[in-house]
Hints:
Blueprint: H1 3-15, H2 27-40, H3 63-85, H4 89-95, H5 101-129, H6 138-150, H7 161-170, H8 177-184, H9 192-215, H10 219-244
Protein name: UBN2_2 domain-containing protein
Region (Disordered): 210-245
Pfam family, one: Retrotran_gag_2
Amino acid sequence: MDSRVESTLKAYASDSNKLNRFDGTNFTRWQEKMKFLLTALKIVYILDPDLVPIEEPQDTDCDELKAERKKRSDDNLLCRGYILNSLSDRLYDLYSQLATPTEIWTSLENQYKSEKQGANKFVTFQFFEFSMTDKRSILDQVHEFLILASKFTVLKITLPDAFLVGAIIAKLPPSWNNYRKKLLHTSEELTLEQIQKHLRIEEETRIRDKDLNSEAPSSSKVNVVESKKGKKRKAMNNSNNQTNN
């Protein structure tokens, strides 16, 4: 076996553990990881649709052309093996019928492109339907929302910070309506870092005020205590009057 092929197979034995087998879900993630791996191994060029084919062997071929043909053949074999061995057993059995790595790669893209588009629509739906509640920390929900927004990079869509700040303010729960109005009327151009800082301060203030209110006696309780004290004083006065008489 060629020493380069042998060293590449050894590298695959260690690198394959870092790449989860594709089972039909998260195609984009798998594809990006596979491209990175093939690039690191310097064989991703095999998947280039514009790759110029090497002519069939001729008796007059020079040694350089023979070496290039041998390398291309080895790289095709390795690329095909890497792709197939990163698939689940079910998909391996299905796609191993195809002869070249380019055929396998193209077939996978065609098969899962529609599913990817459906996933993209779902991400968009989640983004617009996202709403915050008083039952959870506001900052935790903001963090969750920003993670959701980051998925738009897969769609090659960049959401400006000003847009995300406005979306965060709009998605605050109803109990934050007054604070929302305060933020909307501020002349300060808030960044994502600043809006999170403002929300953290406001949330901490609300928690502190709630704790103080829970510790302070309510007015009704105060009235009951005062009423009992008044009755007790009245009873003592009546007792004293009777004794004096």
